[in-house]
Specification:
By secondary structure, the protein is of the alpha/beta class. Helix content is 29%, strand content 23%.
């Protein structure tokens, strides 16, 4: 049993993370820090009070000032099975697409679920070990994700992408889901992307 597990049981998760922050230990998942900053930046350019949003990957974006917000949870909710029951302005899928057996079909269903001009914000891992939930099927580079979205029908010139990673983060995540810790570098090596993200806009 690791020291972190023992301390978590003794102190509780919140106390342990609070103590860690006091001594300068960053408890955030190292692979996602820059990615979430960039995804938040993409969202900051939208008129959220006029946006109906569905997140199909949990509840990370709950509490934002959307006009309406609904959370669906994968794999109980299967976007591969068909479009949403009613159209929305924004769909968010955070670290889900790699698990889908039919990612092209799912992307088409997202497109069909968006109102004209609606947006799809998606993130996936690249240089991350296989992690079945319940399956693990695909990886995309930045260009690969861009062209998956375009092939599904999103206009190519209205897809913004990004990627982040470095060798230390790749190696740290080989056995555990690494936290940034005391000195995890946030520098980016374009040849070693750990995570990839994109925002695509449906034609108006």
């Amino acid at each position: 049993m690791s020291i972190q597990t023992v301390l978590k049981k003794a102190l509780g998760r919140e106390r342990l993370e609070g103590l860690a922050r006091l001594v300068g230990y960053d408890t955030r998942p190292w692979a996602r820090i820059v990615m979430y900053e960039q995804m938040d930046h993409l969202l900051s350019g939208l008129d959220l009070p006029a946006t109906d949003c569905v997140e199909i990957s949990g509840t990370r974006y709950e509490g934002r000032p959307f006009r309406s917000y609904e959370a669906q949870h994968y794999p109980a909710f299967d976007i591969c099975a068909g479009p949403l029951p009613k159209p929305v302005d924004l769909i968010i899928a955070d670290q889900i697409w790699e698990h889908l057996r039919w990612p092209y079909r799912a992307t088409r269903n997202v497109l069909d679920s968006l109102r004209p001009g609606g947006r799809f914000l998606v993130s996936t891992p690249f240089l991350i070990r296989v992690h079945a939930n319940p399956t693990d099927c695909s990886r995309w580079t930045e260009m690969g994700l861009q062209h998956l979205l375009a092939e599904a029908g999103f206009p190519l010139d209205d897809i913004r992408t990004g990627a982040w990673g470095n060798r230390d983060c790749v190696e740290a995540n080989l056995k555990v889901w690494a936290r940034r810790g005391f000195a995890g570098s946030l520098r980016n090596d374009p040849n070693l992307p750990v995570v990839v993200w994109a925002m695509a806009r449906k034609a108006p």
